[in-house]
Design brief:
This protein is α+β, with helices and mostly antiparallel strands. The chain folds into three domains: 118 residues, Immunoglobulin-like (Sandwich), CATH 2.60.40.2550; 87 residues, Immunoglobulin-like (Sandwich); 184 residues, Glucose Permease (Domain IIA) (Distorted Sandwich). It contains eight helices and 32 strands. A hairpin with a 2-residue loop joins strand 21 and strand 22. Helix 4 crosses helix 5. The longest helix has 30 residues. It is extended. The C terminus is likely disordered. The chain binds zinc ion. Zinc ion binds next to loops.
Length: 469
């Protein structure tokens, strides 16, 4: 009995021991399971590139969601030179905490800055070699590895750029035209006028000839920097100044008295058409919301529509001022809004207010294509007409709209009838002109002599080819 019991015990110890070992191994394997995954780090550039300049904008994103990054290297090779741009190691878990993973899951490397700092760039072919490994136990504990090579060309010479037009006389708030020639490697070119950029368009038979209609905005300093710029795909930029004389202009100041009758007329109407305007629970507060935020949103929207503008002139000679109209407000009037004896807001009026009689037929100022025909915030029922090369006219406060988006219109064609929709006290037309989203003084465009001297004569015979067919 005793012997049998001992035997039983002896037989029982080994399996228990083996079972324990198996259990420990199983627990260990389960705990370290994550360390055996086979997913290599991902390596991504923030953009595609075939050429890079001296100080390129380029960044690299390296990511390993599984075991975390172990080592990242970036080597720049050009001719027989090899420059290490990046050689980073990131710590992993210790032997005693083997069930954990590495902490560094991702890194973003500003390669453009490193190239500019660590390498004297020479024109010609080059390559970037990238390696990244993680803290996985695969490949004999060496980790999963990504390798990538990118071939490209260092291009350090900016496009060639020559300004051909001379004697640019510019009214503040007005427009002007520059003609220039640029080499074919330029991807973007145009006039930078203070904070605003006005792209150039091809003109004439010379494929390298461009013109840019630009504006010196009414609300930037008269001494703002004006220059032609041209950029290639590698980001190299050529800059050229041009002779100009600016005529600074002082715009009028006007006081607008707000009363409850006006607020009751305009606020609920504008709100009902503009879901983004929040009811402030009070007519004057909601009016101020409309007058500032919605006004800005409407002008932003015009800028966003501009890329749809045709890349050629759709117009012909002088623009029309509404016939027989009386001028009620001028371009860039500084308006102070007064309610119950107190100043409540200031805004600029970026167009002309013209009145004739109620529901007067409103004619297109020039040939073009209808870009918008809808209720448009502060301007009420509105028609926007594209005249090409970024020039857009606006007809606001209409009682009715008589055209559709995409419709071609001729100068003098009726596009709607005057009214008092939107922020309008009485029946009138608000007429505005925008050049690449920047409001410009229409008086120049109403003047056939100004157009001839500043635009058509500059383009010469090429003006006709700019107009296209
Ligand atoms: Zn107006």
């Amino acid at each position: 009995m005793t012997l049998a019991r001992n035997l039983n015990r002896g037989v029982g110890v080994l399996p228990v021991f083996l079972g324990l070992v198996a259990l420990i191994l199983l627990v260990g394997f389960a705990a370290s399971f994550r360390r055996w995954e086979g997913q290599a780090p991902s390596v991504r550039f923030d953009r595609e590139f075939k050429s890079l300049g001296r100080t390129p904008g380029l960044s690299l994103q390296v990511e390993d969601a599984g075991n975390g990054l172990n080592k990242v290297t970036v080597l720049l090779k050009q001719k027989d030179q090899r420059v290490s741009l990046v050689d980073e190691s990131y710590p992993g878990p210790s032997l005693f905490t083997f069930w954990r993973t590495g902490q560094q899951k991702a890194t973003t490397i500003d390669l453009g800055r490193l190239i500019a700092e660590k390498y004297k760039v020479q024109d010609g072919p080059a390559s970037l070699a990238i390696t990244a490994s993680d803290h996985s136990w695969r490949v004999f504990f060496g980790g999963n590895k990504s390798q990538q090579q990118r071939d490209f060309v260092f291009d350090i010479y900016p496009p060639r750029l020559e300004v051909l037009s001379s004697q640019h006389y510019i009214n503040q708030g007005g427009s002007e035209c520059v003609v220039y020639r640029v080499s074919p490697d330029a991807e973007v070119s145009g006039v930078q006028a203070g904070p605003n950029f006005f792209p150039g368009y091809p003109t004439g038979s010379d494929p390298n000839l461009r013109f840019s209609l630009f504006a010196l905005a009414y609300n930037i300093p008269g001494k703002s920097l004006l220059r032609v710029v041209a950029r290639d795909g590698a980001g190299n930029e050529a800059v050229a100044g041009f002779w100009n004389k600016v005529f600074p202009k002082r715009f009028r100041s006007r006081e607008i008295a707000l009363d409850d009758g006006f607020l009751q007329k305009v606020v609920p109407e504008v709100m009902s058409h503009s879901p983004n305007v929040k009811d402030q629970g009070d007519l004057i507060k909601t009016f101020l919301e409309i007058n500032s935020k919605l006004r800005k949103a409407n002008h932003d929207q015009i800028r966003e529509l501009t890329p749809k503008s045709a890349p050629r002139f759709l117009w012909d000679r002088a623009f029309l001022q509404l016939s027989n109209s009386q001028v009620e407000s001028l371009f860039a009037d500084h308006r102070t809004y007064v309610y119950q004896g107190k100043e409540v807001d200031r805004q600029d009026h970026v167009g002309f207010d013209l009145s004739v009689t109620q529901q007067y037929p409103i004619e297109a100022a020039n040939d073009g294509v209808v870009l918008l025909a809808d209720y448009f915030g502060i301007y009420g029922n509105t028609v926007l007409i594209d005249h090409g090369c970024g020039l857009i006219s606006l007809y606001g406060h209409l009682s009715s709209i008589g055209v559709q988006v995409g419709q071609q219109v001729k100068k003098k064609e009726v596009v709607g009838r005057s009214g008092a929709t939107g922020l309008a006290g009485g029946d009138h037309l608000h007429f505005g002109l925008f050049l690449h989203g920047v409001p410009v003084n229409p008086t120049e465009w109403w003047d056939g002599k100004w157009i001839k001297e500043h635009v058509l004569d500059r383009l010469g015979d090429d003006a006709l080819s700019s107009k296209g067919s």
